[in-house]
Amino acid sequence: MIVQVKNGPIDFQPREPFHPLFGAMPRTPLMMEVQITKEYLGFATHLAYLGPMWEEVLRSDTYRPRKGSTVADVLTRPGGLTGMAGVANIGTDRNWSGSQFDQANWYAFGRMAWDPHARADAVAREWAAMTWGSGVADPVVAMMTGSRQAVVDYMMPLGLHHLFATGHHYGPGPWVDDLPRADWNPVYYHKADGQGIGFDRTSRGSDAVGQYAPALAKRWGHPDAVPEDLLLWFHHVSWDRRMRSGRTLWEELVGRYDRGVVQVAAMQGQWAALAGQVDAQRHAEVSQFLTIQRAEAQWWRDACIAYFGAVSGRALPAGVVPPPHPVAWYRAVRTPYAPGNGR
């Protein structure tokens, strides 16, 4: 028997810590499950290369049985059954996955399943050279390697998670609080109020951090020591908390949302510069998808800033462009059913 464990403790979120079962079950064969299809990262239309996400998990130090014991080590320990499983993204489209760039995630899954120590940037370069030609590999890899972080930034930065609208996992819905189970509602996960934001998973809260090795639990359990990319996953902190950038948490959150939108615009520019260097049909398709992604990144940014600004009572930082609509407008948006979410 092999116990199949998701890469993170919730459900394939754009960023999660590694699942605490990795390293905690030394006598039980484990395999890791990842999601190749992008249920929570814009489905087929958003460019999000998942190699860096999986590498982030595989290289995570479990501190079990000792410092330096990574998730990849768990999956490659000698003498036992192991493996990786992937929720697939292939279908009946001519390009298999509905998107030219989603093929990269299928390829990266295969490479990392065979070699969990593989580097995401090297895998991206292999795929880019085979798919687009070695002459354009550099700009294509540059787009790919920053794409997942861009999605995190314009959707759920700093450890926010599960902010999706009801009935699909596509558009923003941080205001949702009417579903029958508490843990189906985005408000359960961000817990934003007038004082602060974030889910307290320390010993003073749910103590989920206590499921990790003691050394890691101590580090992640302190807001000054936890990586800022996981701050709001493990801590409920004040809007006025001073971040490592020198900005307040509110300023940093808004800055991350803006950074994600800017990154998508940069990917559009990088791809536009390749016109004539890749075939016209595929160039046009990717351009169309990037146009969709740019508009929807702006939608995520505007809706979340409008909502969190209203909840916190904070004014936007100086120089920040305000959302064009109030929160009520974004709450009224209805997104069509998005296939592939398992619902």
In short:
This protein is mostly helical and 343 residues long. It has eleven helices and five strands.
Shape: globular
Tell me the number of structural domains: 2
How many strand units? 5
Amount of helix: 25-40%
Low-confidence stretches: 337-343
The neighbouring-strand order within the major sheet is: 1-2-3
Mean pLDDT metric: 95
Structural class: mainly alpha
Strand content: 5-15%
- The Rg value, from CA coordinates, equals 20 Å
Word description of this protein:
The protein has 343 residues and is mainly alpha-helical. It folds into 2 domains: 131 residues, Glycosidases (TIM Barrel), CATH 3.20.20; 150 residues, Alpha-glucuronidase, C-terminal domain (Alpha-d-glucuronidase, C-terminal Domain, Alpha-Beta Complex). 40% of the residues lie in helices and 6% in strands. It has 11 helices and 5 strands; from the N terminus they run ββααβααααβααβααα. Strands 1-2-3 form a 3-stranded parallel beta sheet, covered by helices on one side. The longest helix has 33 residues.
